[in-house]
Amino acid sequence: MTSTLIRKELHQHWWAFLLIGLLSLLGIGWILLFSIMQGQGGSHLIAMRLHAFLLAFSALILGNRLVVAEYSSRTQLFLESLPLPRLRIVLVKFFLGLIVILLSAAGGLSIALVVSARTEVYTPRFIGILNARYLCFAVFVYCFFFGMGFLGRYRFVGYALIIGGITLLTRIRDLQMSDLAPIHLVGGTFPFEREVYPVTSLAITGGLALAFFLLAVALASVREGSVSSLLGERMSYRDKITLTALIFGILSAAYVIDEHKTKAPYQLAGGAEAADTRIARVTVAPTSREARELADQIGKDLDAMADFLGLESMPPIFVIERPDLDPDQFEYGWLDSAEGVIVRTAFRHPDWRYALCLEHLVGDVIENTSHGRAMKEDRFWVIDGFTLYWPHRGDSDAPLDRDRHLLLRALYGTEHLGELRKPGDLHRWFTHQERVGHEITAGIGWSLLRVLEQEAGADAARNWMRTVLATERSPSLISAYRDWETPIDTRFQKITGMSLPEFLGRWNEALDPWRETLAEPLEKLPTIQGKLEFEGEEGATTQVHYDFSPPGETDPEYFTRPVLLYGETAPFEVQLPESQLKRHPLASEESREGWLPETWGSGTGFTWTFAADSPALRCRIISGWRHTHIP
Amino acid sequence: MDLLRKELRALRPFFWLILLLAGLDALVTFATEFPDQHTIADVFDDFDAEFAYFVLFAISFALGQTLIGREKNENTLEFLDGLPVSRGRVYWTKWLAGYLVLSLYLLTGLVVHLPLHFISATSDNPSSYPEFWASMLAMDLVVIAIYLSIGMALAFWGRFGLLAVLFYLIGVWILHESGLPSADFFDPLIYGRLNVIGSTLIVPWKVAAIQLGAAFVFALLGLFAFESLGRHPSDVSGARRAATPLFITGLIAACVVSLVTLIRTAWSEATVDPTLATEPVFPDWETTRLETGHFVFIYPNNQAESAEALAAESDEIHSKVVSFFHAEPKRQIIVDLTSQSPRHAGTAYWGRVRMNLRAQGLESRLPAVLGHELCHVYIDQLSDNHVSDQFDATRFFHEGLASWVEYRFFRPPEELPQIRRVAAVAHDRERIRFEDLASSARLSEEFAPEWVYPLGEVFSAAVIETWGEDAPEKIVRAFGRDDAPTGLNGIALWQDTFQAAGYDLETAIAAFFRKLDDIVADEREWLDKLPRFRGQLVNEANRYGIRIRFADDTDPARKLPMRRLYVRFRNGPGTAESDYQVRRPDRDGIAWISRDYFPGGSVEFQIIHNPAATLMMPLFDPWVSVRTR
Predict the structure, then answer these.
(1) Which of A180, B180, B470, B521 is deepest in the core (most CB within 10 A)?
(2) Side-chain half-sphere CA neighbours of A348 within 13 A
(3) Chain B residues with CB inside 8 Å of A566's CB?
């Protein structure tokens, strides 16, 4: 009877066996091809890893044909009417398929061993390890698909749960896919490990294989096979759609949950931590006396800022020394799976300024706590100004020229931009930054906040800054909707008692007297100018010719280190971060006109500006950022 | 029209699924982003185009299968035959209905995201890039036609249609791996490699046209099969009856023939009849196995002298490396000297080394190569392979440390500038950041993957000068510790590892850049004499060329003979290194390459020059991308 069953299976599924034979041939062909290509990898046995994939595929086909096809078409009912134990029917199927898969595995492995003989050293142990790993893997994949086949239409749900479970496991338990036992057996070390049997992986894989085999036996036998019969019914069209929808729904939910998960704080080895802070956690590395003092100072300032803005939490701050950096350079680190603001700077350099460091940190912290909401263009002037306002805070009634260089920035900026009188002018802040540079616009923002203090009172000004900068709602439509409910300009009026046009009028009036008072230093501030031309060559590459016009005033008090800043922008971007800008120094006479050394492809996004440092303003001034696509 | 309405009604579940997917997309966006700060630049950065097109393919394929499969499974064919319409008309109506549903899927994506991009636009970047969206939509409308036709044609095979697709994709992958330049023409998922220059989408129209033609043929096959579906054989013409089995047989035959042809071609390249070859072909020699204290050398008998000379020194080399790493010596390391890899003098794997005894140039110092490769073996051993598991982030350290050991123990001190000068050029001309070094993929995209050697060597030297010669061993062991968190990569991985080893990564980075600055200062004179180059694209009917020009044509002293120049080409930043094509310039200074390699409409090239034979590698200019017309 058993032989009849075997013949029946062969007759019924001959083409599936043929297909598996073809897959085996494909696998063997791949092994041969790999060896003919002189084995660009470390061993010809590496080809077995693709063979393993084809083997798994064969197991899928076998499981599908031997189990799923039988039970979905309900032909097992006919078999069960025969004078045979149900278990024998299942075991015949199982062992027939197992023999086929083992033959395929053994065949592939044998061919691989033969073709590798010229460049391998075979020992009994090595061959034993290879056989144990590969055949155990073969048995596992077969048992897996054979067992899952008995779940019928719910096998897809099973697959989804297993994949989802593995994904969760790898995330929660910090595992890699290659660490999972069955995958490890045919993983990276498969062709090379010649001394150690992977006992744990073999045991786990064998155990899993046994579990799936027992699942098959249980489902086939329970309630006289009625369970497997029920499960084997075909999935309807609607079932499939529902399952697909469910899977996508689960994936989407997992993504949203992951995005909202609170990340663990970053851990930095060593470093001095700020003492006696309420909210701010500041670490400065490496440990030194200066680091400890800096940590305490930053901690104190950020704590005070948290009180001022009413912040309830703050990301941890890490300041790391990079003595090779220029004293005015700050490099930012980005953390994927941890929380914190990391900045590298040369804080022991004699020309390093604490105020500049705090300006950078303040902006970063607020961007972090507001989840980027404070960076929206219609209110950007507030954070821009605040990054200067906070490090230079003091008596709100003090005249603006207490911080002369900041006032000069505001005057210089407004001169170049024209007066800002309408709320719409404030809503185009990024355009202003393009024209005069972000350090100048920060000066304008600073003056706006200082004048607001004087016109509306310190409390109103603080409340306004709180409302913009201290929003701690996480990104979502609901948060945005709450923001839209009261437009920013309306909120300004409610808090300060002035409309924006009225305030802007008063602000301009406040600045006007200073234009006269500081006319002389303002006049000496240079305007940076220059030209760039794209000379397209025959074909599709372009060279760039620049011509820098040095300002008339060459007194180093007002103008140093001229440079051309430029770079290729990413698709749809018009700006580049500082770290990705190229620099072409223009200090010498000969360098003021010439060709950039690079070649550029047609259509590439290109951004550029001429720039110089202004000691009077203590910042960079620019000719204006221009963005274009290379013709 | 009634037929179309009937088909659309039958596709209602798909319609709801598409709306659900659009809804989920919107939900995820609204639950995780501020909708008025959702710029196209931000979205493009995070967009996984390959996955998106894979999903589009899966949905289109499933839809195609459903359109035909349902009639078969629900036995509604007799009803259809009772209608006063031909099967052909029914088939094309189904195709149209499927196409409309898929078009809806495309449009829902636009409907969800375009308004958000519009309201998120800023004053400095106000454009909504309508040209880009129009190109993308046009491309996608062609793509769904291709995918739907494939799905409907293979619907007659039921589940085996899916198998056929899987086979086909494996075949395409094999073609890619074999380096066939036209492999892209056969790849239905090529559209997932979005090629955007500036804000222009470079659509591979040539590929799309060929695939659309093939899809039309598929659709016709599907039509023939549909016309004979469920009918008594005598009711169907012989040709149409034969279509499906012929197709199946043809597909199997094609697979077998392709495989046999591939093997035969490869075999014939390896063993061509010498009387027919234009180049001499040499036989493979038998190999010998030679055991030493720690190695088993396998080498061809015609290279016995050099192999045995290497073997004689090998145990001493091994002692030095083991002593440096304070490692337990491995019982036996296999050294396979039969490699003929043109790209590497040596490669190392878990307990096994392959070397090319015929390596030319500097690499021919074989003990140094063996020492270098042994370092890789022991780095893997000490870290339990974890350093190699994260190869993208650790490649520079793997190669750099091995290079440091190589130059320290196995080469004379006067050879050190050979590697340090390359590092000097990289640092002087480009703003390399540590983040670039800690990502082999990024280094390859922007500069040259080969820079892991010189820059990694300087990094290792900086670490050793800061903390002593024990430091690398501790760092390597820190990678392999049991409680090392997985899932880290890039800088986070390095910070964690250095911390576990008791060191500070930032101190190492500072020392690294200081050392680079010192090397640049020492080599200033040499660096200033190096020429700079420009490349100019030359278009011809069936090939592209890059004309190399010197940046400073007026100074003859800085010219180099063309034989020291190469041009390297690739399809795009994500191209695997093994797919790079290298060409020498001709007498006119133009390096030519067939157009077939670039169906996507843009060419990326890199000029490579070798100013002195005594450098450990040539010098690489940055990659340049040009759009072809």
Answers:
(1) A180
(2) 15
(3) none
